[in-house]
Amino acid sequence: MAASASISKSIYFGTYVHSKSLTELEIRPDGVIGVDEKGVIQFLETNVKDVESLKSRREEWKDAKVVKIKGEGFFFPGFIDTHTHAPQHPNTGLFGKTTLLDWLQTYTFPMESSLGSLSKAQRVYSNFVSRTLSHGTTACAYYATIHVLSTNLLADICLKRGQRALVGRVCMNSNLSPEYYRDMSIESSIADSRASIDYIRSIDPSGEIVLPIITPRFAPSCTAHCLTALGDLATETGAHIQTHISENTSECELVKKLFPDSKSYTDVYETHHLLRPKTILAHAVHLSAEERALIKAREAKISHCPASNTALTSGCCPVRTLLDEGITVGLGTDVSGGFSPSILEEVRQAIWVSRFRAMNHGDVHKLSTSEALYLATRGGAAVIGMEDKVGGFEIGKEFDAQMISLGTVAEEGNMEGKFTEGSIDLFGFEKWAEKVEKWVYGGDDRNTVAVWVRGRLVHSTSKFEG
Ligand code: GUN
Ligand code: FE
């Protein structure tokens, strides 16, 4: 369905769950969320047993469509993926024992360079957007490739499918990038970035669904002059910025060598005016206290990518420290450094990595399930600058949501109704909080039976009755 198609006034009827704060998950049994024709939440109620009596109380909603959860389940805010690489999806699971710098040369650059083919880009990007939507991702910050037309195609696909997206043409002009996959000059790097920004703004002038994002790949990929020009482009266009920072120790050493006059990796971005409130920095594993203070002062945001950090043995990002210092953090799948397009998987990975950190640095570093779910929703919304619009259920927010079904008991030999291991409350004594915990640890895209962006259905499975 085209993203511009109109929607009907709808009442979403069933338990809803969302983060109230970093530590508090709010569970509202028998909830009702009233969403208008623009996809904006107009009212919320709880403990509603009968939607007809609600309609009789709310005259102007008497003709509204009712979307009810079948069986056991709940509404949850759409997930926000603050960092991923659409062109790397075909490489998912390929990293062997490489670490960042040889992984880029071995797997990543050859795959990305091949996406200059528009027919290949069409296949890869439409499949990837389908996959992220099916995992409940309603907003995503995408890296494309250096190719303008393929990047624009990714934005077209997101707009058509109705997924909120920040879409970035990758800039990489330094001669550390392979000759076969590199911007050939600073001028072409800037002109191509500008062309993509202009195109994305032309297809969605309101910026409600797709937005451009300036994307210097990372400091080693760009010359100082190119970074300066990209900083200027950010000032001129007001666009978001995304890049990688301090992911791997060899990369950090390389940055020191390439930018000997900079005080730190973070200072490289600072001196080129790339550290701003609209900047998303992925990884941030090895930052010093001074670097974190600078990021906080500039109000730049961090995308935590735990699956990728483990796969490429980059390190354990000190998320508790970042949060305690007041830095805004969200989660990123970082496909294909990360092996899954699922933010629910990143929630688990964030929790796991926090436990490894706790083993050496103390229990305070453990993230709770509620905290990880916050990062996946409200945290991510703040990272992409949409905290006023999405990330939770409140009057005035837009309805970006997923319907989670906890499934039914599988009959012997028939897996049709079966969703996830142990997710079913066989004996009827689980509390709601326990059901949510079990979804987090045992759930996957089979549980995500329907997904909405601004009240528009953007994905559903055969389990959904709309
Ligand atoms: N640093 C520079 N490019 C990349 C990339 O594609 N993935 C990851 N994980 N780190 C990077
Ligand atoms: Fe990345």
UniProtKB/TrEMBL annotation:
EC primary class: hydrolase
Cofactor mode of binding and number, as noted: Binds 1 zinc ion per subunit.
Ranges where the Amidohydrolase-related domain occurs: 76-458
SUPFAM superfamilies: Composite domain of metallo-dependent hydrolases, Metallo-dependent hydrolases
Cofactor(s) the protein needs: Zn(2+)
Pathway membership: Purine metabolism; guanine degradation; xanthine from guanine: step 1/1
Example of a GO cellular component annotation carried by this entry: cytosol
EC number: 3.5.4.3
Keyword vocabulary terms for this entry: Hydrolase, Metal-binding, Zinc
Any one GO biological process: guanine catabolic process
One GO MF term attached to the UniProt entry: guanine deaminase activity
Superkingdom, taxonomy of origin: Eukaryota
Pfam families: Amidohydro_1 (PF01979)
Catalytic activity: guanine + H2O + H(+) = xanthine + NH4(+)
PANTHER family per the UniProt record, alphabetical: GUANINE DEAMINASE
Family: Belongs to the metallo-dependent hydrolases superfamily. ATZ/TRZ family.
Role according to the record: Catalyzes the hydrolytic deamination of guanine, producing xanthine and ammonia.
Protein name in UniProt: Guanine deaminase
Source taxonomy: Eukaryota, Fungi, Dikarya, Ascomycota, Pezizomycotina
